[in-house]
Amino acid sequence: MNMKLPITRAFIWKKNALALLDQRHLPDRQIWLNCRTWQKTAEGIRSMVVRGAPAIGCTAAYGIVLASRAKVFRRLSDQKSVLRMAHKGLLAARPTAVNLRWALDRMQAIWQPFEGSCRELAARLEAEAWSVESEDRESNRAMGQYGAAILPGSATVITYCNTGSLATAGLGTAFGVIWTAFHQGKIRKAIASETRPYLQGARLTAWELKSEKIPYELITDNMAAYVMKTEPIHAVLVGADRIAANGDTANKIGTYSLAVIARHHGVPFYVVAPLSTIDLKTIDGSEIPIEQRSSEEVTSIRGNLIAPKGTVARHPAFDVTPGSLITAIITEQGMAYPPYEDSLRGLFKNR
Questions:
Q1: What is the SS3 string spanning the chain?
Q2: Mind telling me the catalytic residues?
Q3: Which residue among 86, 213, 228, 311 is least packed, with the fewest CB closer than 10 Å?
Q4: What confidence tier does 16 reach under pLDDT thresholds 50, 70, 90?
Q5: What's the CATH architecture for 11-139?
Q6: What is the mean pLDDT of the chain?
Q7: pLDDT category of residue 7 using cuts at 50, 70 and 90
């Protein structure tokens, strides 16, 4: 089967700079931000220029490469001092997505014990960052195949937030399943939920679905129950920012509500995420840190107030869906089913 891969990229490494597609301006404009320092990279992660757990991890890895080239280092100790600072600064950019820590720890495993020239260390770090990116791209392909295999023909699916090429290094997680199934002739329609307050579904997922010519509709978040009640929905497909050892899954705020609605209507609810998103050190969802973002992102849209000035608004950026509401977790190593305490650990034994 000849399937032309998506050409959308969230980031591009350019040897001495990391180019980030500024997703805050999509779908209206495509603006690229060139990051030449790890500080600029961290700010790109913090301010949502780049988002999506796998893409954040890849971006942070390249941020470490930029730190290793912050200047012409004469002593390895000076270079490592900057790398320690960069590791700490990048890690603090966003707390919930475990892929960020996973990628930074992987880079640290290269530079921390290294003994050699500063130039050689920079080269090794660049090679490792490229491995992080290319492995994510391959895992996207595998997840797409595993996920597509469990969908029936002519399926209508609901997805949430954005999980495509804009959120990863390749096809995407949940979006990658939809993309793969569509090219296998198994998708009748994808329904994208708008995903308030940042509107990743409306601005980004709808844009990707349209670009890939996948039939789709956009719904507001509060339409999901009505849609499931009034038409056949074959699956809900979402991504993840962190999955605890018991299957509890942190994802964009609103995912938990969607899972409850799906359970009530008997619709399978699938989480699609690479192994790098699974955090076996986190016992359950109560241990997952939830990022609290500014109330302005709730009370305004792109700088335009939609609530009275001075309104206090809550903005937890993520919620945690209990593993008991998740039908299965789709990874690049295959499917995990309840009880997740056993199946998730089993996936790592195959590596």
A1: CCCCCCCCCCEEECCCCEEEECHHHCCCCCCEEEECCHHHHHHHHHCCCCCCHHHHHHHHHHHHHHHHCCCCCCCHHHHHHHHHHHHHHHHCCCCCCHHHHHHHHHHHHHHCCCCCCHHHHHHHHHHHHHHHHHHHHHHHHHHHHHHHHCCCCCEEEEECCCCCCCCCCCCCCHHHHHHHHHHCCCEEEEEEECCCCCCHHHHHHHHHHHHCCCCEEEECHHHHHHHHHHCCCCEEEECCCEEECCCCEEEECCHHHHHHHHHHCCCCEEEECCHHHEECCCCCHHHCCCCECCCHHHHEECCEECCCCCCCCCCECEEEECHHHCCEEEECCEEECCCHHHHHHHHHHCC
A2: 241
A3: 213
A4: confident
A5: Up-down Bundle (1.20)
A6: 95
A7: low
